[in-house]
Amino acid sequence: MSTSVASPSGGPSLPSTPLLEMRGIVKQFPGVRALDGVDLDVRAGEVHCLLGQNGAGKSTLIKVLAGAHQPDAGEIRWEGEPVTLGDPQVAMARGIATIYQELDLVAGLTVADNVFLGRERSRLGITRPAAANRAAGELLARLGHPEIRPTAEVGSLSAAAQQMVSMARALSQDVRLIVMDEPSAVLDGEEVDHLFQVVRELTAQGVAVVYISHRLEEIREVGDRITVLKDGRTVATGLPARETSTAEVITLMTGRTIEYVFPERREFPGRTAEPVLEVRDLSLLGRFSDVSFAVRPGEVLGLAGLVGSGRSEILETVYGARRATTGTVQVTGRRLRPGDVAAAVDAGVGLAPEERKSQGLLLGEPIYRNITLASLARFARGGYLSGGAEKQAAREQAEALDLRPVDVDREVRTLSGGNQQKVVLARWLLRDCTVLLLDEPTRGVDVGARSEIYALIRALADRGVAVVVVSSEIPEVLGLADHVLVVADGAVVARAPAGELDEHRVLDLVMEGAAATDGAAREGDVA
Amino acid sequence: MSETTTATPPAGSTTGAADEGGKGPGLLAGPLGRNLGLVVALLLLCVVGAVTAPGRFVDVDNVLTILRLAAVVGVVSVGMTFVIIGGGIDLSVGALVALSSVWATTLATQAMAEDFHWIVMVVTAVLVGAGAGLVNGIVIAYGKLVAFIATLAMLAAARGLAEIIANRRTQIVQDRGFLEFFGGDVLGIPTLVIIFALVAAAGWVLLNRTTFGRRTFAVGGNAEAARLAGIRVQRHTVWLYVLSGVTCGIAAVMLMARTTTGSSTHGTQLELDAIGAVVIGGTLLVGGRGTIVGTVLGVLIFTTLGNVFTLNNLSSSAQAVARGVIIVLAVLLQQRLAAGGARPRKKARGAATPGSPAGALPGGSATPGGPAGARPGDSGGRPPT
């Protein structure tokens, strides 16, 4: 069936004008430039893979494409015509459907209701459930899932089945381009194969697919061309998906677009001192297992690994933001209560979280209140705050970190990403932390401000703070850290002094680990 | 485009200056503009009162009546302000007032008061309020129940318990000392009004000058960030509801003095008046932002409105309609402000089309703003540059 439909609509064989062209797309949010000149062109009938680390701008880009965000600059052409995708309805009318990672289904409605939501099958305002059920059933059968009953309540379905309902919704209208945001994340091996089959059928009919995934082997299997995003920019576009080596793709994603100056490592004073942070056999069920490490005062430990390897979870568990299943965390010899952030903070641990805005900052509050949040007790006598001393202390930190502007009464939301990160760091500096955990410290930080953050981290270590840095950028880990742990799929696969590792060695380790465990997982699924 | 962006810093620096200017006690610092708007609304209401009912409105006794009426709901609203800024809601306040008043006027309690001192009744009322608030807080913070549901349940249960204890009868306060103390006045100002003023002042200090207050803003503004900064969010939440319960206990004492009774019907729909006052006072229902001054003004506006309506022989039904309209208008305004704060860009774009009306609202990052009209440069004025 598919082959007969394919040729007339102009499949991959006729790559004349691209179906979709995006040029120089810029999207600025308060404090951060999420897209900074993105180019993308998608041809009818191809699977175009969009790659990039978390925060590279993929989600923002697909929201622009779906009409949910308006770009501040740049041009979108649809079949060669410049278009404005003013809102999601406009995008849908053009035939652009988006299947989001968090599925946007109404759990309490039936499958058929969801498929035709907003375009209910009706006559004179009376819905025609039978017609809707039949049509939805046909769509699901076409997707290879006839077992999903159109009358079933969506909330009762598995994640994979829900995804198929989303897909059926996309197909229920005249769709030309489907954006799939990490569709395989919720699927097991067999379901992924099935998804690929569906994707191939769609492309054979001339539909274009923009496919987002972190799993490179999938991209090799289903993709035609690759576009890599990094820091809101397109770093490579139109790469052939099958011929481009994995190493090249990962280097594009994790490598440096610009060479950074890393601060010089010094012989840290505490080399012989007792470790301040000792993690033993720490495990979090389903995330990572048996992680052990120790950090001495003045040492920077780096955790390298890909997204989903468990690196952030390790940090959060050490901090007590997640409750460890087994294992212990000791700070200056005292054992921390698992799952108790306040206890960790009292013991002198600080965390600069990955999602700075949602986890780290009170965006509507002034800078000084964000800086003093973790050390309020210091400025209070019997709970009564001394406003002057508090502001003064915040101002000192702001000046020491060269925060711009130094006006501590300003709302944090008006600051750039780099300066927001400085506010988070200032919070822990003010507390005189002994252990500082940094999760992606340069995420969303303008390229220019990164070296400053690096210098700051090193200066902290020189003061005797034990620092743990998580980063998806391998050169960043290697440049900053004294020791490096390589994490792959929830396990530490290597540990070595940073000087003994190079980017390629780490890449190999990361990929070996990922490949080995991925294979195992697949086998496990079959068994 | 870059020029429009650079238009922001000057606006920011003026807010800084405004903040400096308004320091000292800092009572009106913060959302000065909004509170000023409320003061204007209250003054307008007074003008209407003075014009429609001259002689009777502008009268010391009438003003004291307004204040005395405002006192009970005012005290509860102060507690409510904390709960709402902390990201919660307390629907049980009216029922807690009833329960506290009944418990504090049982024969047993009154007998103890007679033997010892009427302070026993006060302590009982406050402890009952605090205890019920503690239950609210624990259920919400540790039981992870939605605050709306948990306090709705408490509303039903507490009033039911009050009925059981009182056996549906109104209990008369016997203690003369109690009635004389709370029914009296100091230099012509009723004790109830003084209590309200003290509670409001204490609430202001607690909110703006203590670690507790600061943490309340943090917990309501971004609970996850607060937790990761080492704040014990659950424990703090419990304290917020205890605080609200304590204000209910105090309000119960005041109501017992005003009516000389304890009754399971006391404080009916008090929660609506309190939440309404807090909301028109500019406190965001989603938490993280709000002021005590705004709440007090909100209470005064509601009470004055009622007084003006009564003096003009308008029905309480008409009054209820007017209250509803005021709440809607206040929340509409609030949403504009919140949207402006969260998405200044969109706001600026939206403001470009309708022109002047949007300029009247302090859009954008309006928190420490000056009076609304004084900062046209922020939202309304941005597009032309």
Question: How would you characterize this protein structure?
Answer:
The complex is a heterodimer of chains A (527) and B (385). Chain A folds into 3 domains: 2-95 and 177-254, Rossmann fold (3-Layer(aba) Sandwich); 107-173, no CATH class; 274-526, P-loop containing nucleotide triphosphate hydrolases (Rossmann fold, 3-Layer(aba) Sandwich), CATH 3.40.50.300. Helix content of chain A is 35%, strand content 24%. Chain A contains 18 helices and 24 strands. In chain A, the strands form 6 sheets. Chain A has a 6-stranded mixed β-sheet, with helices on both faces. In chain A, strands 18-21-22-15-23-24 form a 6-stranded mixed β-sheet, with helices on both faces. A 4-stranded antiparallel β-sheet of chain A has the order 2-1-4-5, with no helix packed on it. The two termini of chain A are 33 Å apart. With 385 residues, chain B is mostly helical. Chain B has 2 domains: 66-311, ABC transporter involved in vitamin B12 uptake, BtuC; 324-385, no CATH class. Chain B is 71% helix and 2% strand. In chain B, the strands form 2 sheets. A two-stranded antiparallel sheet of chain B has the order 1-4. In chain B, helix 9 crosses helix 13 (233-259), helix 11 (211-221) crosses helix 13 and helix 14 (270-280) crosses helix 15 (292-311). Chain B starts with a helix and ends in a 25-residue tail after the last helix.
